[in-house]
Amino acid sequence: MAKRTLDTFFKPSSTAPKRPKTDPIECNTATAISPPEPNNIPIEDTKPPSQHPSYPIPIAQLPSHIEVGLEHATPANAPREINNQPHLDLLHFQPYIPRATANELFKFLRRELPFYRVQYTARRGEVETQINTPRWTTVFGVDETSTFIQEQDDNPNSLVLVETKTKTPTPKTKYQCTPRPIPACLDLLRRQVEAANANANADNKIPGYNFCLVNYYASGDDSIAFHSDDERFLGPEPNIASLSLGGERDFLMKHKPFVSGNANRMTGGCVPGAARATSGPGSTSATRGSCTDSGATLNLVSSPGSRPAATVPLQIKMSLGSGDMVVMRGATQSNWLHSIPKRKGKAGEAMRGRVNITFRRAVVPGGTNNYYNYNVGSGGMYRWDEVARDMVLRDSKV
Ligand SMILES: O=C(O)CCC(=O)C(=O)O
Ligand SMILES: [Fe+2]
Known about the structure:
Layout: H1 64-73, E1 80-82, E2 90-93, H2 99-112, E3 119-124, E4 127-132, E5 136-141, E6 146-150, E7 159-163, H3 184-200, E8 211-217, E9 224-227, E10 240-246, E11 249-255, E12 315-320, E13 325-328, H4 332-335, E14 336-340, E15 354-360, H5 365-375, E16 381-385, E17 390-395
Antiparallel strand pairs: 1-2, 2-13, 3-4, 5-8, 6-7, 8-15, 9-14, 10-13, 10-15, 11-12, 11-14, 16-17
Helix pairs in contact: 1-2
Bound molecules: 2-oxoglutaric acid (AKG) and fe (ii) ion.
């Protein structure tokens, strides 16, 4: 076969036989992994999907043209350190994944993952509010007290959940949810993001992500409210890597309020508008006090003895394009809020849809319960439908 460059991977080959058009849903069924017809289906489509009793559907493996793009050209750029604001410690890879690969990965994940539109009740004192999460979500992983291990050496799909310390089976009663192993297509990314982080850290420390949360913003009406991922179940100073795929969206950050007369932040931050679904009621994020959400630059005026008098712009806006990755680390989560605001207009980038993946490490079972509760919930499972160009309900059970 003629040598193909990376670029040609993304162009239809004029000589290669055409792949038969199939319903994308069928890619996950047993029929899709039956032996390929000779010279008809490329080898890349024969890789068996990731399967597990906790999955509502088998999850396809990455086609080799995406895997090649990830393995040979990622990271596409070295990260820029952003730490010129109080308590802010970010790495910005722009991009992390080359754009062409990122766009392919966006379409693949939107098509192959199960998604949920989670509804839940938030309680503040006596007041109960019904929250409709304004985006599609899904989650994989388990906190560090449990581990998925392969039961049969030659079968990567034979994963069972055991106690990390004793390697004995995790009791069914340990979780209020059924943890799902990170499928192969996301696990490759997880390992790469960990390595990129280790390279960027002076101490070369690998964050050891055990959770992968996925958001799909179908249009400018989908969003995530100001929040911080500072729940206790993530431990102190969590490292969270956030990867953007597909349409460009604004990412806003603002410092939590400072107590007047003290440059340290006020304990308790804010989540104007709504609690966020990855945290939900009961978490530190959802129970914060109020603060302004004007979008204006906030001024920090310090007091004698704590911080020299200064005016510091405490609002940041970044435009995140396909393949970009932001790593939030150090004191960032305990001092800053972030959001993806709604975007007006019925055309443009937001209408392409955007997938966001965050990798994190949860340290206690409460984190596992929280993440499944607010990212899978108890409603129906949806899948992307290429014809309807929308998420379609596939199973009224999770
Ligand atoms: O979509 C994004 O870039 C942000 C997602 C996020 O903040 C989260 O899932 O906690
Ligand atoms: Fe977040």
